[in-house]
Amino acid sequence: MEVLLAIGGTIAGEIAKNLVAPIWRPFYYLIYYKHNIENLKEELQKLDDKRTEVGLRVNNAKSNLQVVVDSVIRWQEKADGIDRRSREFIQNEMNVNKCLNRYSLSRKAKKMTENMLALLEEARNFGEIAYPDPCQKIELWFSDERIKNFKSRESILHDILMALKNDDLRVIGICGMSGIGKTTMVKQLMKNMETKKLFDEFAMVAVSDTPDFRKIQDEIASCLGLELKNDESEVVRASKLHQRLTNCDKRILLILDDVWKEDGLGEIGVPLGCRSNGCKIVLTSRNEFVCSSLGSQRNFLMKVLNDEEALVLFKETADDSIGHDLLDTVKEIVNECEGLPIAIVTLSKALKNKNKHIWNDVLRHLKNSKLEDISGMKAKVFSAIELSYNYLEDEEAQSCFLLCSLFPEDFNILVEDLLEFGMGLRLFKGVEYVHEGRDRIYKLIDMLKGSNLLLEGDDIWNESVKMHDLVRDVAISLASTNKQWHTLQSQARINEWQGKDWYKNCTAISLLCEDIKKLKDHLKCPNLELLQLWHDCQNDCQLQSLPINVLEGMKGLKVLSIASRIPSLPQSIDVLKNLQTLCLWNDRLNEMHTIGDLVKLEILEVRSYRLEELPAEIGNLKNLRLLNLRRVENLRYIPPDVLVGLSKLEELYLPLRYMMKWEWKEDEEKTNASLSELGTHHITALHITVVNAYISPKASVFRNLIRFHIFVGKSKVHIVHKDSENVLHLKGDASDIKGSGICVLLRKVEVLYLEEVKNLKKIVNEIEDNSFADLKRDECVDALVRIPESPKSPLSCLSNLRKVEIYECDELKYFIPLSMARELRQLHSMTVMSCEKMEGIFYRNKVNDEIESPLTTLCLNNLPNFIGFIYKDIEESSASEINNRMEIVQSKTEPVEKISIFFSSLWLRLSKLQKLTLRNCGLVKALFHPSVTQQFLQLKELNISACCKMEYIVAEAKEEEKNKGISKIAFPNLTKLDLGDLPELVAFFADNDISFELYSLVCLDIWSCPKLKTHYCETPDSSTLNKSYDQSELKLMFPTSSIAQRLLRRGKPKDVSKKKDMEMEQPSTSQMKSGPMEMISTLFFPPSSPLLNLRELHIFGCDFQEAAFPLSVAQQLEQLKDLTISSCEKMEYIVAKDKGRSKIVLFPSLTDLDLSHLPNLMGFCKDNNVSLEWSLLERLWFYEIVPSKIVSVPKSSTLSTNDEVDHLDTTFCATLIPRRRKKQDNNFSKK
Predict the structure, then answer these.
(1) Looking at residue 1219, what is its pLDDT?
(2) Is-annotated flag, keyword Thylakoid (predicted)?
């Protein structure tokens, strides 16, 4: 009962409360009106104070580039709103009738006060109101308007972006010489990354040559919003930073700029070896080895700007301070900078608003290699390069670098010359033999290249290096200061040098002078060890001899190099008793009998085309270790027993042109030298040419060879190879070759040439005998080698091959079995020419897994029976394999004809192939099967010609393959495509249902492809779409994407003629073009392959109707510079008309226009809304264009050209009226 009473009391109390409260509330607001108003004013003041405090904190955070948290921003917005409304309320409260509104005013004041109290409570709970914003910090780095994205930088920037998108790459390196633009590149990279939202957070720090690792930690942490305390230990700080970079859901890009050494970065927490995909690291360094040692998985080398970009950068930095009278000087100064951005910017700033005398003086200093005397150059350019030199920390590398400065400007410095000089100066410690010195010089050059102090040379025959001009200027200064090595390249410098007696302390002198006669007759240089005399070819001074006693005061010389036109040795050369190296680079040298007096000579190199006989006195050089006569091209005679006297000879280089008449009968009296004289020497390098194998030395001479060029027989082909490669050229009867002992070199050969070798099977047996014994002698399938019985027996002689060239070996059907292809681990280049029976490169025997090939270059020429890259006998193939690889066409009147797809197999991957040339491979119908195109992502150059059966470059995919998901084919790196003399070629790609991409194409040549036609018309109306057409009418109809497109791309031309009643399908709006069909991007290439980067387009002998391409395609070609169209008889316009277009500009980058043999050409463009703004045009060539007015375009069109067109030729253009815009009445006239 008591419980019931308690419950009833509670219920009654709640009911009374709910009933009384609403009745009491109005009285409350009326009674406490004044209290609520005063309370509102007090809380408003508190809120105002808090708003001010929070606002100051927010402004301070923004001033420190911090991001204010969203809750604080929302609080400010609410507080501002309440403050505004409260003040309006208080102001209005004073003007209203309080008696009538006392209740409502009190109630509003109470509510506002409660809201203020809530905001004040929220503010009291604020923690940190802001956090660091790394993105805002990055934005400030891009305020420099001179940071440009030049064309030469676009490709490397694109490659870096692709590498960062690759999940398998976590660390990449950007390398390049000092001032090349590495930092600018990574800034641009980060800006792109931020725009594309590929990363969530960014951090970039400069490491420098003297890194403060604690500061680097703090900068990275600051960018990422990580707090590292100063009192924390190094281990704790490193651990926190490592965890922040790796154990985070965000994608982080960390850029470490200007890295000099590999030590220290891992210890401070940078995750260089971590496999986390969340953090990616970009390194920039002058030294490629540093990037590699820090775990870089791919390095990108930055090169100098091209001439055009360098000039643009210079002019933009100098603003408007370059007058017309300075233009030639500007170009010379820019040329001296050789595209180095830091030098260009430094000079342009220094010369800004200066008069022409200062410009001329700066140019003079640049030409005389005096960077120190130019304002700003010493601090920014000289010191930066000097720092790279000092950082080598290897005395031999520094000496090698300074040695390169003794060669002329922009000179290809041969590695062999550096070896010869270095050996003569005894620069290499612990080196006894010449081949050991060669290993050392290559190591040093590799080190200098890695530090970007040396560049790769461009000598196609010899391994060479070059120096950037500004790097060379610094090296010249350092060499004169540190080693007393002087390079004098003007007569004024020579006079200055001699006048102050500087030469007395010199240890090396290199003279590049106009007239060596002006040297003092008797120079006392007791410390001189190296003298290099250069003839100035530009002035062509006819120096007949050196001053008679010029060498008298240089008795300590160890290295003498004379590059002049002196016909004989200097008269005083016999005083050089300590001479170690003598280099005579003299195209007129014909007498050198005094050479025998140089008894300590170890290295002798002669270059002369007049020397026909080697003097017998050379036999007195008992200490000679290297004799280089490679460039004595007319050498015909070496006296007998001269080679025998050179008892210490290690390396012999004779001219490879066949001129020598070697003795070969040992039992007869000798009149010429015999190669058997070398039998007692320890020869490690040999370059010789012999007419027949049977007169070559015995096997004992070859066994010790480390490097060699052995040519047997006179070659008909032009052979290009590096001097560092081991080359073996065989021609003639294999029986003689087998018996000569040359075959022992098959284990070491890197470049193998086979030319017209008869009885090839005997060479096969010799290869087998020298490689392995377990061979099936009955399985030779007319290949170079047979198939091993055991897969554990490698073909060792193939493992060193880098280059193979085979010419006119008519017995050869295949190179080797496919199973042996894995042994070709270093094969980068292969050429096969004029082998009549050859059907394939590899013969497919049993292969269980895919093989990766290192081939980068493949050239096949004149192989009329060639079927495919990998061939298998038809009898051994299944029906499905035959269908997949080749088509067998058989008729009653014709024999069986094998027509193949060149690349149809997945067994051998050619993922590194960059250049492919195919000529006169008669049985090839298509080049690629769609399923294998993914292998050729690195292909850059494709040349196909004279393949009479070829119809498509890429064959059509089969239905089952389409069902497997082949939807797109791309050659992303293809820059050059040359297709010519292909009478059956219909289109690049046979399949209409697969998209296609050629975004990097720069140069396109099409010639003599008569079945590759354009077919287009104005967009037809619906009344014409249901008509039937035969082949002769196809050229007038069919819009883009209609049935004709598929017929012309997929079907053979003869298939079209069979369609008597062909219905036209109505295309959709998205498929229709408001003009003619697109020849390049729709017919020859599918619509998905725009040619945005095309720079050269050459079209010859193609049966185009009316125009080469439509306006819509022409608009894409904004980068086109060179346009050549010739021998297209039916062509009426270059660019067709297109409806519904506003006024447009065509080919704005065009510099060369060549139109010839176009008898029906009526104009350049049929459309009136076209402007030809050719401000860059340099060359016009019109040849046999009879009825047209080419440049006189329609009235509403305009043609603007360069003020100075370099060349205009209108030969045989009887009615051509070329016109140009009027400017000072300077009009073109006919030639």
Answers:
(1) 40
(2) no
pLDDT at 733 over 80: no
CA distance 252 to 270: 12
Higher pLDDT, 308 or 717: 308
Q: Does residue 1153 share a domain with residue 1109?
A: yes
Residue written as token pair 């020298």: 770
Average pLDDT (635-645) is: 87
Whether 189 maps to a domain, the answer reads yes
For the chain, the first-to-last Cα distance in angstroms comes to 130
Same domain, 160 and 253: yes
In a domain, 321, yes or no: yes
Structure tokens at 865: 């029976």
- Residue matched to tokens 């931020």: 194
Q: What is the 8-class DSSP label of residue 1080?
A: I
The DSSP letter of residue 353 is: T
The answer as to whether 1167 is a domain residue is yes
Cα(989)–Cα(1084) distance, integer angstroms: 7
Mean pLDDT of 64-86: 87
> Structural domain tally of the chain?
6
Of the pLDDT bands very low, low, confident and very high (cuts 50, 70, 90), residue 459 is confident
Over the stretch 553-568, which tens digit does the pLDDT of each residue have? 888 999 999 887 777 7
Residue 662, by phi and psi: left (phi above 0), alpha (psi -120 to 50) or beta? Answer: beta
The CB-side HSE value for 694 (13 A sphere, CA atoms) comes to 7
What whole-number distance in Å separates Cα of residue 148 and Cα of residue 184? 9
Residues 1119/1026, Cβ–Cβ less than 8 Å = no
Task: Spell out the alpha helix ranges (H) of 631-731.
Answer: 642-645, 699-703
Tell which wins on pLDDT, 1140 or 922.
Answer: 922
Give CA 387 to chain center in angstroms. 27
Biggest CA–CA distance in the chain, Å, is: 150
Say yes or no: 155 and 86 in one domain: no
Which of 757, 792, 825 marks a domain boundary?
825
Contact partners, residue 881, CB within 8 Å, separation at least 6? 872
* Judgement on whether residues 139 and 127 belong to the same structural domain of the protein: no
Give pTM, 2 decimals: 0.68
Q: What percent of the chain has pLDDT over 90?
A: 14
User: In this structure, are 197 and 178 located in the same domain?
Assistant: yes
Instruction: Output the six-digit token pair for 431.
Output: 């080196």
Q: What is the DSSP string of 237-302?
A: HHHHHHHHHHS-SS-EEEEEEEE--SSSTGGGT--TT---SSEEEEEEES-HHHHHHTT-SEEEE-
Greater confidence (837 vs 1082) lies with 837
Is residue 1121 located within the same domain as residue 1199? yes
CA gap 958, 885 in Å, rounded: 12
SS3 813: coil
Question: Domain end: 301, 327, 351, which one?
Answer: 301
- Is a pLDDT exceeding 70 seen at residue 620? yes
145 and 278 share one domain: yes
- State the number of CA atoms in the 13 A half-sphere of 1105 facing the CB: 17
Contacts of 387-394 with C-beta under 8 Å, sequence gap 24+, read 387/178, 387/209, 388/177, 388/178, 388/286, 388/451, 388/452, 388/453, 389/453, 389/474, 389/475, 389/478, 391/209, 391/260, 391/287, 391/451, 392/447, 392/448, 392/451, 392/453, 394/444, 394/447
Helix locations, 283-355, DSSP H? 288-293, 307-318, 327-337, 341-351
> What is the C-alpha to C-alpha distance for residues 557 and 577, in angstroms, rounded to an integer?
8
Per-residue buried b or exposed e for 915-951, using 16+ beta carbons within 10 Å of the residue's own CB? bbbbbbbbbbbbbbbbbbbebbebbbbbbbbbbebbb
Q: In what order do the strands lie in the sheet with 464-466?
A: 413-414, 464-466, 455-456
Q: Supply the range of the domain harboring residue 49.
A: 32-131
Region 1041-1059: mean pLDDT is 32
Alpha-carbon Rg for the chain, nearest whole angstrom, is: 40
Decide if 716 is inside a domain: yes
Mean pLDDT of all residues in the chain?
75
